[in-house]
Amino acid sequence: VIDRPGVRIPNPSADEIKSIGPYHAHFKVITDFTGDPALTAMAAKMSSGLPNLTNIQGVIDHRDTLRKTGAEMGDLMRAMNDKYAATQKERDALKQPDDLKPVYDKAFDKTVTAPVNGFREAVPIAQAILEAVGKLSDYVVSHKDAVRITGGQLQPTSARAQAELTPLVNAVTAQGAKFNEAQRKLRIVLTGN
Fold first, then answer.
1. Rounded distance between C-alpha atoms, residue 44 and residue 63, angstroms
2. Which of 142, 184, 176 is nearest to 161 (CA)?
């Protein structure tokens, strides 16, 4: 577990489980966390990225879905935090010999704590970009006469529309750069590259 890149946990055979003996329960604390369906769903969503945000018409057409995605991420974060707290309690209750504890702690930190911290960084940024995109698309929809979409670009038709649109576009751009960096760091934690 420690030597493998990313979060890769071997699935022990029946013979390996037998040879591990009572320490299989220690290993199971990690695998129960990393195999949790809600957490694997969040990992898939974050590693595959957000819905396509480069097509402005698609963003406008799917803005309700984007908002729903942001809310789902919040729900998944709450589930992850609850599961992490429970897993920490399980870990703290383990009785380990002195020579096993540092090795187990490294494996736990790599496969449980590091991904949790990565998600804690990336998810709020993803939610912020989805919120910024929602505000931008709402503006475009409510100001159809002041903003045109030409060749995938937003084109304000007045100086006022330009002044109102610019901060909305800048907010999306700023959050996008932050999200790309957080997603890159999370991918390194999860996959090792």
1. 21
2. 142
How many CB atoms lie under 10 A from the CB of residue 106?
A: 12
Are 77 and 121 contacting, i.e. CB atoms less than 8 angstroms apart?
no
Enter the tokens of residue 114. Answer: 């590091």
- Residue 8 buriedness (CB in 10 A; 0-12 / 13-18 / 19+): middle
User: 84, exposed or middle or buried, with CB in 10 Å at 0-12, 13-18, 19+?
Assistant: buried
CA 131 to CA 147: how far, in whole Å?
Answer: 20
Average pLDDT over residues 75-93: 93
Q: CA quadruple 120, 123, 129, 133: dihedral positive or negative?
A: negative
Lowest-pLDDT range, 3-7, 85-89, 154-158?
3-7
Q: Which of 191, 27, 147, 40 is nearest to 96 (CA)?
A: 27
Distance CA 34, CA 145 (A): 50
117 phi and psi angles, rounded to 5 deg = -65, -40
- The share of the chain scoring above pLDDT 70, in percent, equals 95
Q: Minimal CA–CA distance to 192: which of 6, 1, 3, 2?
A: 6
C-alpha span between 163 and 5 (Å, rounded): 48
pLDDT per position as a tens digit, 18-53: 988 888 999 999 999 988 887 787 777 666 656 666
Q: Which residues are CB-neighbours of 81 under 8 A, at least 6 positions away?
A: 116
